[in-house]
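Can anyone check this?
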Amino acid sequence: MVDLPTEADYIIIGEPVMRPNKSYSYRYEGGEDGTWIYDTSLPLTAKISDNVITLTWTASYSDKFTLSFGNTVKEISVKSLF
């Protein structure tokens, strides 16, 4: 079964699935002001430049997390290679 895109998928542009140790960029295309918010306790490195954030999952296990900008929330899945 394929998940249908949500409204957030059109406002926060980027892959909904990440792989460990690869970098993925997400761009906010909405009209509200805000900052990028994610759980800093997760094994993520982040580089932020204005409305773009580049994330790298640094662990080898799978998980899910949310990425937010303003009131827009996007769920990201991390799928390990194993």
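Reply from J.R.: I decoded it. Residues 34 and 71 are 8 Å apart (CA to CA).
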